[in-house]
Amino acid sequence: MYSLMSLNEYATHRYFQHLDFNRKDALPFIKRTYRILTGASANPIIKGDGHVEHHAETFDDMSLKYSDRWQRTPASKLLDADDFRGTAFHWHATGIMTIQMLPSVLPTYCLMGWSVPDTLALLLPCMLLHALVWNAIHPPMHGLPPVPLHVGAPSFVLAGVLAETEYFKYIFENHMGHHVLGGQVNYNVCCPGTDHLLGTYVPTEVWLDRMRPLPANAKTRGAIVGFHGMPVPPVCEADIVASAPAAITVRGGGGVLADAYSEE
After folding, report:
1. Closest CA to 174 of 216, 205, 147
2. What is the pLDDT of residue 241?
3. Which residues contact 14 (CB under 8 A, 6 or more apart)?
4. Torsion angle of the four alpha carbons 94, 99, 105, 107, in this order, in degrees rounded to the nearest 10
5. Which CA distances in Å does 102 have to 1, 98, 188?
6. Over the range 187-204, which residues count as b (16 or more CB within 10 Å of their CB) and which as e?
7. Residue range 236-251: average pLDDT?
8. Nearest to 145 by CA among 71, 93, 85
9. Tens of pLDDT along 142-166?
């Protein structure tokens, strides 16, 4: 089950949240199948869910840009509709991911002799656990408040349990590298593994020296919740402007997204 969750998390993050699906060379078999089944002459195009905009306001230390100029942009206004600015796993997102899991989970477990009820009895708690881990880690690491029960799997359930664990430290650094390198690597968030198999994992020692200082007098939304000894960007002197995006070319990696250092 873990392997299937890791694969699904990777595919959803990379191809749908990052819109890599819309790249001409991405997933040609799926697009060709779509054209055959529907009779369409053109490939399907998917719309974003705010995740690209989330990257556009994230600094390398995981804090979120909060300048007056940024708040007037269409990207920031789109994120204003969500108190968690695209970082939380809402209940509907948990439901969508559960449905996305069914085409891979049901046949796999059927081949192993599991009944559908037994398979669902395993899948549903796993999906809840995934949402609990995500909401305990992801919004707070970007300086946003804990997720309450009426919004999604509540952050408080695992926030204290995971704090300062080796798992939390790994997940935090792995996701930090995802942002530092322009969103083209480290797509797994809660279930690492698929990045390693597909060659899109970049360890901390590779991206650490590419962290950029925050722009002088940068305004951010809130204090990030990290861990003791976590990577921090270099200090920016008052007259130094942050450098250009620090993305590297990764064979098989995704497209580079705009970030908080980009011009608004």
Report:
1. 205
2. 45
3. 20, 187, 200, 254
4. 170
5. 11, 7, 19
6. bbbbbbbbbeeeebbbee
7. 52
8. 85
9. 999 999 999 999 999 999 999 989 9
